[in-house]
Specification:
Blueprint lengths: L2 E5 L10 H9 L3 E3 L19 H14 L5 E7 L1 H11 L4 E9 L8 H5 L5 E3 L4 E3 L1 H17 L3 E4 L3 E3 L2 E8 L4 E6 L1
Parallel strand pairs: 1-2, 1-3, 3-4
Antiparallel strand pairs: 5-6, 7-9, 8-9, 9-10
Helix pairs in contact: 2-3
Length: 182
């Protein structure tokens, strides 16, 4: 059986994974769904200086102190950025990265680049999302960057999760980049 660590996004807590965690546990898997500092039921701990990096260190410490190995590390929303950084900090403990409707930056991209894109979003009753042209452009950019980067030496296993396909690469410097997702 596998060990899963499920990382929530901003303004959420580990509880968002409850239905997923229940199913995984029922199938015999070990599941951790921590609530990160300053979030949800830990909102009293909010302080200046909490970042994606501090959240990543918190998850990496969980992996270390619980002695977790061959972990399937799952992130949603801004948790995607957290798991990328965790992959850099604890590469030897992670078997797979899974991005579920997650924010995973391209090389040299910043959060501000995404939230201030000039491309119009598609807005529906339930959500707002990048246009198809924007998403396809990001995928092409990712593929081109991947082809141009000879230092990419290891691919984490391809993960399929109800239509989501993610390729996460670790370069020689150990940095995580999400090559493609759709």
């Amino acid at each position: 059986m596998a060990t899963y660590v499920l990382v929530h996004g901003a303004y959420q807590g580990g509880w968002i994974w409850k239905p997923v965690a229940q199913r995984l546990r029922a199938a015999g898997h070990e599941v951790y769904a921590p609530t990160l500092e300053g979030c949800a039921e830990r909102h009293e701990q909010v302080r200046v200086g909490i970042t994606v990096g501090t959240h990543a260190h918190e998850v990496a410490r969980l992996l270390f102190y619980e002695d977790l190995k061959d972990v399937v590390l799952v992130g949603t929303s801004s948790g995607g950025m957290v798991i990328c950084r965790v992959a850099e900090l604890a590469e030897d403990r992670i078997a797979r990265l899974v991005f579920v409707d997650a924010l995973a930056l391209l090389p040299a991209e910043r959060v501000a680049d995404i939230v201030s894109r000039p491309n119009a979003n598609v807005v529906t009753e339930m959500t707002t999302a990048p246009t198809r042209a924007d998403a396809e452009g990001r995928i092409r950019t990712a593929v081109n960057l991947r082809m141009a980067e000879p230092d990419v030496v290891a691919h984490l296993p391809v993960v399929h999760w109800e239509g989501l396909q993610t390729f996460a690469s670790l370069g020689q410097d150990g940095r995580c980049t999400a090559d493609m997702w759709f």
